[in-house]
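USER:
Class, as today's exercise, take the chain set out below, and explain how the chain folds.
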Amino acid sequence: MVTVISFVFWLLDRAIELYIMAIFVYALMSWFPGAYQTKVGRFLGAIVEPFQRWFNFATIGMIGFAPLVAVFVLGIIRGGLSYLEQIIFHLMGVM
């Protein structure tokens, strides 16, 4: 039972880590003309844009900080999952 719970939390942590990397790659693609029109650009856009759109309020002039805010929020979620894992294992008497 403990290994299943540990595996689920590990899997969620890796998924968030991969999503953060996808956000960074998608943000860096803005430096290259036409990068969003490639297959990789369209794929990353389909994955990243729906979540990143929630944070489009974070702009100053022409500079958008939506990717940074999205990564920050994912970091908070990741920390919360780690804390939740510790609480669950503590209640089970494992740690």
